[in-house]
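Hi R.,

Here's the input for the acetoacetyl-coenzyme A complex you asked about:
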Amino acid sequence: MDFALTEEQRLIRETARDVADGFIAPRAAEADHLRKFPEEQMRKLAELGFCGILVPESLGGAGLGNLELTLVVEEVNRACASTGVTLSVHNSLCSGPILRFGSESQKKRYLPRLARGEIWGAYALSEPGSGSDAAALACRAVRKGDRYFLTGTKRFITTGGRAGVIVLMARTDTSHKQKGISTFLVEPAFKGFSVGRKDEKMGIRGSETVDLVLEDCEVPAENRLGDEGQGFTIAMNTLDGGRIGIAAQAIGISQACLDSSIKYAKERHQFGQPIADFQAIQWKLADMAAAIHAARLLMWRAAWLRDRGEPHTTEAAMAKLVASQAANRIAKDAVQVFGGAGYTCEFPVERFFRDARITELYEGTTEVQRLVIARSLLK
Ligand code: CAA
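And here is the predicted structure with acetoacetyl-coenzyme A in place:
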């Protein structure tokens, strides 16, 4: 399985595995039950350089690529999906576009602090009226002199209430759908910015999901990311990377389900033998393992293509589609292996089952991934 990884990449994965097992996993149930933002977990990851994986060393980051990011994000999600999504969004949806599309001064202003974990990053595309049809967003940005004034509501924003910088899409031109969108780097201290309602969720309860309310929010023109009208392209390109991150999340959750199921199947006795001796259990474990390996290879390839600067939109969508569907099947089967015990909070598989569900929804639903793949087949 490790044939594609260098010695350095294996070491990075080992480091992530150690912190996931030793620090993040013991705090995962608490983050879930108390809906507690994984602040100390994120700080620990920052100490190891994992909050600036893509950021060049000259700007205080680790200077690594998307493949390394998948290794870390998978390990963290194996321990705690709330920490995992917070980390993925921070690296791929916030630092990522600043790095790709930012001016030198924007990079210098935000990336070192994001890499050090002094501020957390967020990404705001969705709105109450625009989810899958992202380009239908209505949040308005009107330029007056050297400022833009933003008005609207952004919905389902991961880490939105704690972020020091938010990569936010708003409409600068109402006469074009996709090409009327621009991207802004919004700080919470900007006048007219406030945090709205917080969502109670089925899973990933330790991660924060909020509305952001913009009422004539004053954004300096120098905080526009890229050109006017480039915002949709920036949003989509960023999601190509983010979707690889959600594949890593789904695979991390799946691996946790498999590991827990193997352990329990060996320990649990029924009819005078470990349930691992029953073929009904063995087949579930075998199917889980095969699906995890297949999804991981798709994910690694998509990340590798992104790192090489080659087209990867379809590959990222395929990785997310396959990994997230697998995670939902695997989490369901893991609960089945545990039987009634799997339905209780005594074992983590009920949390894995709830956490897996979101991977088919955010950063593009399963249906959107199919649409992206089908369009590339039929063009
Ligand atoms: N990279 C670069 N450019 C892209 C692109 C990509 N991946 N995908 C599309 N574009 C460009 C196209 O080339 C096109 O430009 P031209 O006109 O110059 O050719 C333009 O964008 C419009 O493309 P489409 O016609 O494909 O646009 P569309 O309106 O039909 O939308 C869609 C396509 C795939 C459905 C898109 O709206 C989409 O991805 N929807 C899902 C949104 C989503 O994933 N939201 C997630 C929210 S964030 C989140 O969940 C984070 C979190 O909390 C964890």
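One thing worth noting: The mean pLDDT is 98.

Cheers,
M.
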